[in-house]
Amino acid sequence: MRGDAERQTDMLLALTPDELVPGNHPIRRIKPIVERVLARLSPRFKAMYAERGRSSIPPEHLLKASLLIALYSIRSERQFCERLRYDLLFKWFLDLNVADRGFDASSFSKNGERLLAHDVARAFFAEVVAEARARQLLSTEHFTVDGTLLEAWASLKSYRPRDDQDPPATGGRNPEVDFRGKRRRRETHVSRTDPQALLYKKARGQAARLSYLGHLLTENRHGLVVDVELTQATGRAEREAALRMLDRQRCWGGTTLGADRGYDSWDFVGALCARGVTAHVAQHTHRRRAVDGRTTRYRGYARSQRRRKLVEEAFGWLKTVGGGCKLRYLGLARNRVWPELTAAAYNLVRIAKREGAMQA
Fold it and tell me: Class assignment of domain 139-152+211-335?
């Protein structure tokens, strides 16, 4: 029997978003972890704001919103705020009622400077890593490091000579620019859109783009991210960032670090040896190798080479699901917040999946 469409709507509803979110939804395992992390960060949040004055958007809402943007591949803060008006799962995650209004996209930019000044994104990521450590999901001895190019929010047409202050006279906002036969170098050229973005490519045959370099340090047990950095795209940035991230782990003797052949250099392997870390680095094929048979003959080296592929899963998630194929902000400081929060979202997904598998 064909049903009839009812035009009359209910006048009053006694429903909450919690009743409408399925009980077996995966995000229900993520939210309690986020709540515990935010509770520990509450003293930091209290110190960020004055005791008197007009109430602002709670920083907890902004951090939760950033997680939802990463988890659901939302294109921008403006699109998130539009979806928050009608998506009851988003309202449930932010502890809002059905009739509560969301906030405007300008709240991200107005409060972003305060969050940036107090390094809240880094603190949030560190607390998520602490949650994984409390659940004994992290390896304390075996790590992997890698870096990837992240395209900046700047066009190649903005990469002009430093002494050229005037834009092209023709073409309007999208002028015709001919780079053929012209050599562009960092010493003579700079991007007018994002001056900190550098022209860089990682391999031969690739096109150079205005980019930054993202770096991850993962542990080899479950592939969780234990540290993250964003730097300018230079030839030594990957190795220098790897050493900084490794030093923050306070590793002692017996630690191993897996990496691809781009890290097979004498200075990097020597720096690892000085720290008591065994370099499980893939051997280079076109030059003299810093890692020799004294390391590669052990089974632990082959195991590290297999487990280091987990870092590629993290990079793949950050770029596809987390929306990192092209950065959204200008400048190194503002862009650094994105990988920290997105890596925290990736860890939350891995932790929730692991707990779900153990309960099953």
Answer: alpha beta
